[in-house]
Amino acid sequence: EMQRSLVGSEMCIRDRFFTSILFCGCSISKPDHPVYGLAERLLPANNSSFVFEQLSSDSDFFELEQTTEDKIIIRGNNGVSMARGLNHYLRNYCHRSVSWCGNNLSDLPEPLPPVKEKIRIDASFPYRYYLNYCTYSYSMAFWDWERWEAEIDRMALQGINMPLMAVYGEYAVWQNTLRRLNFSETDIAAFLPGAGYEAWWLMGNLEGFGGPVSPEFIARQTDLQQKMLKRMRELGMKPVFQGFYGMVPNVLKKKYPDARIKEQGTWQAYQRPAFLDPTDPLFDRVAAIYYEEQKKLFGDAEFFGGDPFHEGGTSEGIHVKLAAQKILQAMRKVNPKAVWVLQGWQHNPVKDLMDGLNPGETIILDLMACERPQWGGVTTSMFHKPEGHQDHRWIWCALPNFGGKTGLHGKMSSYASGAVFAKEHPMGRNICGIGTAPEGIGTVPVVYDMVYDMAWRTDSIQIPQWLTNYTYYRYGMEDTNCDKAWKILSETVYECHNELGGPVESYICARPADTIDHVSTWGNARIFYEPVKMVEAWEFLYQSRNRFNHCDTYEYDLVDVTRQVLSDYAKYLHKEMVEAFHQKNKNGFMKYSTEFLDVIKDEDRLLSTRKEFMLGTWLTEAENAGCTPEEKRRFVTNAKRLVTTWTDRDSDLHDYANKEWSGLLSDFYLPRWEAYVTYKASLLYGKKLPYPDFAEMEEKWVLANSTYLSKVNPEGTIPVVEELHKRYYKKIEQAYLK
């Protein structure tokens, strides 16, 4: 009786108070463990049904088991592993899910589905990497703590344990470092970029643009990064800090004329920051100050990023092999176990740099291993390196998005088997992780689910079966129509067979012309799939609209697929419009040009039903991030530039981060196309007008003091899609089949 009483008391303590006691060899997580907070934020009505137990282990794992009290025990070696276990339970038992693009967490089954047999799943890779410097600019530039808290929750649910954390706090680190080097506040302000342009500053591409930033904003970003790091560390993540790799302000040369400070030329017409030769004595002094200031603000780190000569720059006169050793030595003075994390991108890191590092001292991120692998096992890749990554550890990454563009895109066959193939290949044997390095996020959630699933299995994914489960947990119910839609999507737009990467760009977002091969300078607007197949997928998805009315995730996907269908159809209309013009067919030109412009208007209205596709959402974030009225205006201008002109002059960067967003379609892209149509019509009718000055139109829009709604269209998604389906479905189908 006494034994039963003691056991009962222990169970009561565990279930009611979750105090930290030893029970059957398990360390019961305390109620203030962040994984409990995560569960409460996601499942406020059900969080008490879960018990989290943290066990010590040399590798990452999670377990699921049922108690006799119908509670779900989720065990793991840290908060990330337990969060991944919670995600596994939600997806595979409750058929519910979390994403940027809608959540499906309402109306969980009651009672919660049982875990009939205990399961254990081990991570197949120790590192699950996430983010890209550009992500911080194209998606995260103006986030606050509330937005970041939700993002860290999602990261943990995916099992991510190695996020890039190298941006926000760098304002204060560099400010304090330069003050100690006797820089004036004016010189410091000229070096620090404005919000939204930090990525290219830290990659050594530019300095100062989009600024200045206020002391209040620097304090805001410092406080935000401290909160982010605290939560990440509590969950067991190991963030990648920014390292000092030699990037310095150009004005440093004036202060230290005898130091070996090399000019780095230009990047897209911007003067690059200078490069301080790591073999110069000044390098050690600056590095020591930099790391001391970084540690005072943000504590210790194991991983440090930073890429000399990224996308250009010059190494002339630099002993690159010795420089690599000196950069690492500076990192290891602050942490003897420091690891240098390098981006495998284009020709970076160069062989001379890698020859200066020993195995174990670095991890290379093969940023686009999904489509442009460097690691050596895929010889057809445009950036294939015959030597691969030599004996250095590396991480297989997917980069599904450039600039945060809105089109559907992926390469599922690569996500489903690429890391397994690499692991089994002689040249890929040092693979130590899997991850994603998108330039922009908030789109194509299926890609991230598939990639991070691969980190918790040892075999390749069978795509049809995986997708059936995906649609089940994405929408909360099994549905034949949705399965058919996703089968088509997986075989077309999500199975890209070129190396250009990123979504097929929409003509709507292009500067108007008769011939359009790309919207952004390095993009691709050529459809590689049969557009009629997208119409078929749209129809299958649409047929289930009544069944999934008010399902957040379904409505997002329905909008996104409808957007893709309309975007593709605009290309057909453009072709007919141009042909009619060259045939001097006035009626035909007016007919097709009017329909083309109507598609832009209809798509704008469609996208206004989802906050994820609204310019107002982005601009409101920018305004809220500013700490003074002047700074608020500057950040809104930065935000508008990033998604349109990019810079303050006409350049190859215009439309790099093009978006099909409500507000942007109606006020930026539509006027350009209206001007083009008016000009072409004037030629047909013998009243030649001046050719539109698109650069002037764009700059005027950027500087205009316009406001945009951040609240969604009250019409609702389903009614708008029904109206568009009635108007377009038969018309598009007949156009493609004729």
Task: Note the main sheet.
Answer: 8 strands, parallel
Counting DSSP E segments of at least 2 residues, the number of strands comes to 19
> Helical percent range?
40-55%
The pLDDT mean sits at: 94
> What distance separates the N and C termini?
83 Å
**How many whole angstroms does the radius of gyration measure?**
27 Å
Strands side by side in the biggest sheet: 8-7-19-18-17-16-15-9
Q: Give the overall form.
A: globular
Estimated share of beta-strand residues: 5-15%
As residue ranges, the low-confidence spans are 1-25
Tally the helices: 25
Q: Which structural class do the helices and strands define?
A: alpha/beta
Describe the structure.
The protein is an alpha/beta fold. Helices cover 46% and strands 10% of the residues. The protein has 25 helices and 19 strands. The strands form four sheets. An eight-stranded parallel sheet has the order 8-7-19-18-17-16-15-9. It has a six-stranded mixed sheet with strand order 1-2-3-5-4-6, sandwiched between helices. The relative contact order is 0.08.
Describe the structure concisely.
46% of the residues lie in helices and 10% in strands. It is built from 25 helices and 19 strands. Strands 8-7-19-18-17-16-15-9 form an eight-stranded parallel beta sheet. A six-stranded mixed beta sheet has the order 1-2-3-5-4-6, sandwiched between helices.
